[in-house]
Design goal:
Blueprint: H1 10-22, H2 27-70, H3 86-99, H4 105-108, E1 109-118, E2 124-132, E3 171-179, E4 193-201
Antiparallel strand pairs: 1-2, 1-3, 3-4
Helix pairs in contact: 2-3
């Protein structure tokens, strides 16, 4: 009589398979493995978006602060028209650097300050312009000595909404251009350019004939070759 040999692993294997089929202890881990990257990505994108919005606000504040600051600079003698010296503008730039230090405003951006005045013909004139920042960027609204004569130069700002200076005073017009640096590897907004402008009328009686010596000028001539025709 032939005796059938029983496989000793056959029944335990089936039992293990049945137990494994009903075992749900790893479901949460599997779900987490699938959803964690999505949640992490959404969190990073949300963080980057929030920081992008905050950076917009900071660049706007930088433009407002230096426009306000340069509208007040000059000698403190109230009996004569205030003279503006190169060192005064440089000190205003130092304040801007402090305000925009956390976004590295002068490493990734450029600040352009223009003194918009009236010329002898009654037209608008950029009497002087000073710049600081590593970003290669020229003014979008004019360059020093634009409008020196005649009345063809309309002022500074958006076309049809130009800001103009009244007779006997000046408007400090500021442009800030900044390249955003993303916080996360996704780089959703990486390299996007943020531009803001601000303008303040000069507060006190100012000597408008020129900007006086008294320190190295923060010249904009570095990128004059890229000036559009």
């Amino acid at each position: 009589m032939t005796v059938a040999m029983r496989n000793p692993f056959r029944i335990p294997g089936r039992r293990f398979a049945r137990k494994l089929a009903h075992n749900k202890s790893g479901v949460a881990m599997v779900e987490f493995a699938f959803t964690a990257p999505l949640i992490l990505a959404m969190g990073m994108i949300g963080t980057d978006t929030a920081f992008y919005v905050i950076t917009h606000m900071q660049v706007s504040q930088v433009a407002m602060q230096i426009a306000d600051g340069t509208s007040r600079i000059g000698e403190q003698d109230v009996l004569i028209e205030r003279k503006v010296f190169e060192r005064d503008v440089n000190e205003a730039f130092v304040g801007t650097e402090k305000l925009g230090d956390n976004i590295r405003i002068f490493e990734r951006g450029r600040v352009i300050v223009s003194s918009l005045q009236r010329n002898d013909d009654g037209g608008q004139w950029i009497a002087w312009q000073r710049c600081r920042g590593a970003k290669v960027h020229n003014s979008s609204y004019g360059f020093e000595d634009d409008g020196k004569t005649g009345t063809s130069f309309p002022g500074m700002g958006e076309t049809g909404r130009e800001i103009t200076a009244a007779q006997g005073t000046a408007v400090m017009f500021v442009e800030v251009s900044y390249d955003y640096e993303s916080l996360t590897p996704f780089g959703v907004f990486e390299g996007k350019t943020i531009n803001y402008t601000a303008a303040f009328n000069v507060r006190d009686s100012r000597d408008l004939t020129r900007i006086h010596e008294g320190g190295p000028p923060a010249s904009c001539a570095t990128y004059s070759a890229a000036r559009p025709v």
